[in-house]
From TrEMBL:
Keywords: Actin-binding, Kelch repeat, Repeat. It holds the Pfam family Kelch_KLHDC2_KLHL20_DRC7. This is Kelch-like protein diablo. The lineage of its organism: Eukaryota, Metazoa, Ecdysozoa, Arthropoda, Hexapoda. Probable substrate-specific adapter of an E3 ubiquitin-protein ligase complex which mediates the ubiquitination and subsequent proteasomal degradation of target proteins. May have a role in synapse differentiation and growth. Residues 45-61 have a biased composition (Basic and acidic residues). It comes from the Eukaryota. Residues 1-61 are annotated as: Disordered.
Length: 619
């Protein structure tokens, strides 16, 4: 976790007897033949100038930490002892201050602890202090189900944010319907806002199951209200919300009856069936005995009895919940499984980690382009048929009806193309026509169901990774080059941008938090790669991020819930992945996140809202 050290400056010449010359100091520049380097140093030379030579030893930070850790274990040069529940931990003040703002503030202030040789640390378990000291001196530790909560609490107290964030990610990876409420409350207590929100969303998305679990029964009235008042609460019927609230109330009725009407206010009784309202709601003793509750029932009755006056009794309780019948999923379309071209269309819910089948493509296709529109429609263009010919077809998927509609064909057949949605237009970029690479770009207008050519790219490419962001179209890599071009539709011009760090082909790209991520693909010097690069649009620079777990050529990619999901892809010659990896940007880490129904590459993936109860006609 420590930053790389960069020693710079001129060299001091030492006398032959090991001492500095008495007369003066001289600075010398060592010349060496081109290509000659010190193979024993383990470092890397950089650009040599006439006055200085920059040297960098990559193992130096690790070796310094290793040496400091040995000194700590042998109690050499330790200048402070931490006392945690009477367990003593010798340490070095400078190490503690460098990895923990808590200790830095303690040792650099005028507090008594800054001068004490033994410092008492409260609120931390000895085992957790041992783990955190191990992390301070080695940059690594092991998080388990048994220690994660205590470790997060300790890291939060001592302001060791990387460990706190890693513990948050661990809790998120292990979140399910039996623990999400507890994780939400725990994260709220420790001000872990990202984890708190993730757990809240998970609870809302799986409320029917979570609400019937044990954790929910122990919530305070205000916390129950926080969940059931949300427009994003996902339930099949509002009756389910009422049943969860009654189960919660009956778990401890005496202390809860005073606040019950404040909870019932957030159940949308007007959206409940009038039969359920009469047979189940009104019959509850707590409702019959409370004037406030009876008033809420009367309001719901009026809503049903006088539909022409519903606008006059419009309240938050009459508002339909968002996504009550839909769910946001990752749709995976087509691809190749061991050279067999697929026509399957499936959707994956990262919350439940379940797959469902959608309406198949009208034909088997791979090497196609796929994009989702702002109106929640899919567009599929081009691709390669099983006979190897390129397609110019364009199809639109309607998730409401679960059907594919044929649209106007592209002007030029394209396989291995890039497809992106920009300002309401679908852009088809580059690709393979059947006999040659394409530099042409065309765009589709959904309003007129027609295509038109726009200015071509500066270079013809196949298998580019294309994304749209902030009114611009970005084209990266293709054909094993580090190409990056940007198209501005306002001026109809293309501009070269900073090249990627490694040339690629068959990679996948997406936009997350304003950055462009490019993952996987084929790299000429290493074959298929797992390397990940991120482009900063503001500074026009690229940087490496954490590599994926597996090498993946032509994977599918989608962004959902603030995460990057990479699906399938090819490991090597004729070896296809069926795994899914998920990228967590706050910890710059990847985690295996499930499996595809079948292994494949050349698939395309996009996020889309679909009906939970969608029925597929396998025609």
């Amino acid at each position: 976790m420590a930053g790389m050290l960069h020693p710079t400056g001129s060299s001091v010449v030492v006398g032959t007897d090991g001492n500095l010359p008495s007369s003066s100091l001289h600075y010398h520049r060592q010349r060496r033949p081109s290509g000659d380097s010190d193979s024993t140093s383990g470092g890397e030379p950089s650009k040599e100038t006439s006055d200085e030579y920059h040297f960098e030893e990559h193992s130096h930070p690790k070796e310094v930490l290793r040496g400091l850790n040995e000194l700590r274990k042998e109690n050499h040069f330790c200048d402070v002892t931490l006392s945690v529940d009477n367990v003593k931990f010798p340490a070095h003040r400078n190490v503690l201050a460098s990895f923990s703002p808590y200790f830095k503030a303690m040792f650099t202030s005028k507090l008594a602890e800054s001068r004490q040789s033994v410092v008492v640390v409260n609120g931390v378990e000895p085992a957790m202090m041992s783990l955190l000291l191990e992390y301070a001196y080695t940059s690594s530790l092991t998080i388990t189900r048994a220690n994660v909560q205590s470790l997060l609490s300790a890291a939060n107290l001592l302001q060791i944010l990387p460990v706190r964030d890693a513990a948050c990610s661990f809790l998120e990876w292990h979140m399910d319907t039996t623990n999400c409420v507890g994780i939400h409350c725990f994260a709220e207590t420790h001000a872990c806002t990202v984890l708190q929100e993730r757990a809240r969303q998970f609870t809302l998305q799986n409320f029917s199951e979570v609400g019937n679990g044990e954790e929910f029964l122990g919530l305070s009235p205000s916390k129950v209200v926080e969940f059931i008042s949300s427009d994003d609460l996902v339930v099949d019927r509002e009756e389910s919300v009422f049943q969860v609230v009654m189960r919660w109330f009956m778990h401890s009725p005496e202390p809860r009856k005073i606040e019950f009407h404040r909870v019932l206010e957030h159940v949308r009784l007007p959206l409940i069936s009038p039969y359920f309202l009469h047979d189940c709601v009104e019959s509850m003793p707590i409702i019959r005995q409370s004037p406030e509750c009876r008033h809420l029932v009367e309001e719901a009755k009026m809503f049903h009895l006088l539909p022409d006056r519903r606008t006059q009794i419009s309240t938050p309780r009459t508002k339909l919940r968002n996504n009550s019948s839909t769910v946001t999923v990752i749709v995976a379309v087509g691809g190749e499984d061991d050279k067999v071209v697929l026509r399957s269309v499936e959707c994956y819910d990262p919350i439940t980690r379940h797959w469902r089948t959608l309406a198949c493509l009208p034909f088997a296709v791979s090497k196609h382009g796929l994009v989702a529109s702002g109106s929640n429609r899919l567009y599929l263009a081009g691709g390669e048929f099983p006979d190897g010919s390129a397609s110019h077809s364009m199809w639109r998927y309607d998730p409401v009806l679960n059907v594919w509609h044929e649209m106007a064909p592209m002007l030029i057949p394209r396989s291995e193309l890039g497809l992106a949605m920009l300002d309401g237009f679908v852009y088809a970029v580059g690709g393979w026509e059947g006999t040659y690479r394409l530099d042409s770009v065309e765009r589709y207008d959904p309003e007129t169901n027609s295509w038109e050519l726009v200015p071509p790219m500066k270079m013809a490419v196949t298998s580019p990774a294309v994304v749209a962001h902030d009114g611009m179209l970005y084209v990266t890599d293709g054909d094993g080059i580090e190409l990056v071009e940007r198209f501005d539709p306002r001026t109809n011009t293309w501009t070269h941008l900073a090249p990627m760090l490694i040339p690629r082909s068959g990679s996948a790209a997406c936009v997350l938090d304003g950055y462009i991520y490019v993952v996987g693909g084929w790299h000429a010097s290493t074959e298929n790669t797992n390397k990940v690069e991120r482009y900063d649009i503001q500074t026009n620079t690229w940087e490496f991020r954490a590599s994926m777990i597996e090498r993946r050529y032509r994977p599918g990619i989608a962004v959902l819930h603030g995460r990057i999901f990479v699906l399938g892809g090819e490991e090597g010659w004729d070896r296809y992945h069926d795994t899914i990896e998920c990228y967590f940007p706050e910890t710059d880490s990847w985690q295996t996140f499930g499996d595809l129904p079948t292994s494949r590459s050349w698939l395309s993936c996009v996020p889309l809202q679909v009906n939970k109860n969608i029925q597929c006609d396998e025609s």
